[in-house]
Amino acid sequence: MATLNTRSMIFTLYGDYIRHYGGEIWIGSLIKLLKEFGHNEQSVRAAISRMYKQGWVRSRKEGNRSYYFLSEIGKDRMEEAAERIFKLKPNIWDGKWRMLIYSIPEEKRHIRDELRRELIWSGFGSLANGVWISPNDLTKQVNTLIEKYEMGPFVHYFISTYGGPNENETFVSTCWNLDEINEKYANFIVQYEKKLTSDMKAIDAGEKTDAECFVEKTKLVHEFRKFLFIDPGLPECLLPKRWFGNKAQTIFSDYYKLLAGPATRFFERIIREGDGSIRRVTNDDVFHHPLMMERQ
């Protein structure tokens, strides 16, 4: 089994599991969970240390045990990611464009690449050098970035309408390669439509363990989470007529629900074995995601 990036997998576990249990986990339990994916103790400790230095998590000591929990920045990022991953329908567009214009001075040039990644992750598209746009209301994200990078004096943020001379669709094609994104959704559908059918039969026949469901569900979320870095989440009226994102979302949702029960049992067992107790902060038998509520 190919080993997935340790740090990235920890983000996935925090987003899909740990945040529903107070956002905190003992490092020993985290090591045991990630062992299921081929990660060793050294790689887990190195990855969580890096996340700590980057401000995503904080830690506390209890005896000789170290517990790691999400920082406020980490909580905000996980909530935003979950809202986008489990979104059932595209946004309804108000017809306005959000435009962020900035000019980073030389003394802050070290933040340029990181800022660019943050903007793409949030759903902005690059119209020109230092000019980013989105049809979605990303005002909260913009304010967070301004505060995080202390770039208030160097940025302007507009909410406006496009006056032509081209159509909005032409405007979109300048900023995003929707054909490439659509192709990635099509590939996801081909791969996971078959896996959904196969695992549905295996679970019905009692041939798939809780641990195997945990691995498959975590890998599923990990794989679908990649679309956050490429799909800006455009409103439906700005998407191509033949858009595979909706079908991919449906397959993801159905597969997620199929695996959720046994995967959760395994996660709770590992936590209970390592810590003696668990503290779930949601009341549902399976996690409190919009897609779960919709389909129950």
UniProtKB/TrEMBL annotation:
InterPro entries to which the protein is assigned, alphabetical: PaaX-like_central (IPR048846), PaaX-like_N (IPR012906), PaaX_C (IPR013225), PaaX_trns_reg (IPR011965), WH-like_DNA-bd_sf (IPR036388), WH_DNA-bd_sf (IPR036390)
SUPFAM superfamilies for the chain: Winged helix' DNA-binding domain
Domain Transcriptional repressor PaaX-like N-terminal: 6-72
Domain named Transcriptional repressor PaaX-like C-terminal: residues: 176-268
Gene3D superfamilies given in the database record: 1.20.58.1460, 3.30.70.2650, Winged helix-like DNA-binding domain superfamily/Winged helix DNA-binding domain (1.10.10.10)
One GO BP annotation of this record: DNA-templated transcription
Pfam families: PaaX, PaaX_C, PaaX_M
Sequence ranges assigned to domain Transcriptional repressor PaaX-like central Cas2-like in this UniProt record: 92-171
NCBIfam families: PaaX_trns_reg
This protein's name: Phenylacetic acid degradation operon negative regulatory protein PaaX
Native species: Fervidibacillus albus
